[in-house]
């Protein structure tokens, strides 16, 4: 009898262990097809046209039809409008303009500051979520005030601009419950001006932006100094905490040890998991800081306005090709020209963006009122939550990781609104995602304390 009891205990423990080690992950057939549609030819054609405008400096000519930033943004708008023809009326585009006065910094005269915005309207009228992808269309020379000389800006940030355009081209043929915004902003090189204009507008008008993917310098595969050549890795920069994490919120973060679990950091984890799921031979490297030293990106404008936002940037930057006049000096070819672009690398990085946008926009909204029960001492963990406000839900994923792990290590599936896990709440972090029939997961929600 004793041996039978021991066998039964071992069997049950093995069954539990097996159930918690399963990875019930599958590719969405529609997203996989969209990823395969990302085209090197399309990216090449668009980037070739973009650099043909000579300069796209924010202070450059705005009236010419062939040179300067005015001609570039008009052409981008025309491409968005072309893509809209395949959208059954769901994609619309316009140039969002404001007057920006001289600031005695990097703008020496009043200018029309303009972002080119294309909106793919969600099909669910009750779903107010917005997912945004951005790149900056302006370029610069060594002197950021030089508005006349050539500055092709092929990589910085022609690469991010054409990635946004390519995602719009492919995704406009499909429908999503949530809304997706594709934007190429101006004024990045003058101090993130276009991004701050848009982020402030979004905050004032209470847009429900749940994620911002900012793409800036993502099309070249090698660095100066180290001479590393690598087109298999891409960086995702994210902040750990939000500017809104103050007062009692900040106290709870300290008490629960959640300094590494802000919304932007959760978005970065999501980008890594989904990107690597759909794009072969690409490793998404999470960088635990908002941006690089001495540099800034448009995602910061959204971060500072309380939105979850990350920066996507190539693994090995070449500083002889950024913010440089085209020249040869000491045997080094300076300048951000199209010949330095690795279009296969750009294709993979664009595909990674598309996979994430599509997965987010197809997924249900996040679970509501996610809680962790702490009313008594246990070596197990009890989580409970409510169904999302919008979206069709098949079930939920419980995410589990050790407190020292940078990524989620386990996914446990349930169709209930609660679950008891054989993991101590003292030793692990948890989150909950909603998932639909086609396997599209919402962003994770870290549980609040429940009693």
The structure class reads alpha/beta
CATH topology (fold) name of the largest domain: Aminopeptidase
Helical content class? 25-40%
Number of helices: 10
Write down the domain tally.
2
Low-confidence stretches: 4-23
Secondary-structure element sequence? HHHHEEEHEHEEHHEHEEEHEEEEEEE
Report the oligomer: single chain
Query: How much β-strand is present in the residues?
Result: 15-25%
- The top-level CATH class of the largest domain is Alpha Beta
Mean pLDDT: 93
CATH architecture of the largest domain: 3-Layer(aba) Sandwich
Sheet having the most strands:
8 strands, mixed
* Gap from first CA to last CA: 41 Å
* Side-by-side strand order of the widest sheet: 1-2-4-3-5-8-6-7
* CATH homology-level superfamily of the largest domain: Zn peptidases
3D structure, described in words:
This protein is of the alpha/beta class. It has two domains: 2-26 and 367-450, Sandwich (Immunoglobulin-like); 38-362, Aminopeptidase, CATH 3.40.630.10. The chain contains ten helices and 17 strands. The strands form four sheets. Strands 1-2-4-3-5-8-6-7 form an eight-stranded mixed sheet, with helices on both faces. The protein has a four-stranded mixed sheet with strand order 15-12-11-17, with no helix packed on it. Strands 14-13-16 form a three-stranded antiparallel sheet. Helix 8 (263-278) packs across helix 10 (343-362). The protein is globular. The relative contact order is 0.14.
């Amino acid at each position: 009898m004793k041996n039978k009891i021991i066998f039964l205990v071992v069997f049950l423990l093995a069954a539990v262990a097996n159930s918690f080690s399963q990875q019930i992950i599958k590719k969405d057939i529609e997203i996989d097809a969209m990823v395969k549609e990302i085209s090197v030819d399309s990216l090449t054609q668009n980037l070739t046209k973009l650099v043909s405008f000579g300069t796209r400096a924010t202070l450059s000519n705005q009236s010419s039809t062939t040179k300067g930033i005015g001609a570039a943004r008009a052409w981008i708008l025309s491409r968005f409008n072309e893509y809209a023809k395949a959208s059954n009326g769901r994609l619309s585009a316009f140039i969002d303009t404001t007057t920006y006065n001289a600031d005695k910094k990097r703008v020496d005269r009043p200018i029309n500051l303009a972002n080119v915005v294309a909106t793919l309207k969600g099909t669910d009228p009750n779903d107010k979520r917005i997912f945004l992808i951005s790149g900056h269309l302006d370029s610069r020379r060594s002197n950021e005030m030089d508005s006349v000389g050539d500055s092709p800006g092929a990589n910085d940030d022609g690469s991010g601009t054409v990635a946004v355009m390519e995602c719009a081209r492919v995704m406009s043929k499909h429908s999503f419950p949530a809304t997706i915004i594709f934007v190429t902003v101006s004024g990045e090189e003058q101090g993130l001006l276009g991004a701050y204009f848009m982020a402030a507008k979004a905050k004032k008008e209470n847009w429900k932006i749940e994620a911002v993917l900012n793409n800036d310098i993502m099309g070249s595969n090698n660095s100066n100094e180290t001479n590393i050549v690598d087109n298999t890795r891409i960086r995702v920069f994210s902040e750990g905490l939000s500017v809104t994490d103050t007062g009692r919120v900040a106290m709870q973060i300290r008490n629960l040890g959640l300094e590494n679990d802000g919304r932007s950091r959760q978005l970065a984890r999501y980008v890594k998991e989904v990107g690597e799921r759909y794009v072969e031979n690409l490793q998404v490297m999470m960088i635990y800081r908002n941006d690089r030293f001495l540099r800034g990106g448009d995602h910061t404008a959204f971060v500072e306005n309380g939105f979850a936002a990350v920066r996507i940037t190539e693994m090995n930057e070449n500083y002889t090709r950024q913010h440089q006049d085209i020249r040869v000096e000491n045997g080094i070819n300076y300048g951000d020209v199209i010949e330095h672009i690795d279009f296969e690398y750009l294709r993979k990085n664009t595909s990674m963006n598309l996979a994430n946008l599509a997965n987010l926009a197809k997924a249900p909204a996040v679970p509501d009122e996610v809680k962790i029960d702490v009313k008594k001492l246990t070596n197990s963990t009890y989580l409970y939550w409510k169904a999302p406000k919008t979206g069709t839900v098949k079930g939920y994923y419980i995410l589990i990781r050790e407190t020292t792990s940078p990524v989620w290590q386990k996914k446990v599936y349930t169709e209930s609104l609660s679950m008891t896990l054989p993991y101590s709440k003292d030793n692990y972090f948890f989150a909950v995602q909603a998932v639909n029939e086609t396997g599209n997961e919402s962003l994770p929600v870290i549980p609040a304390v429940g009693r």
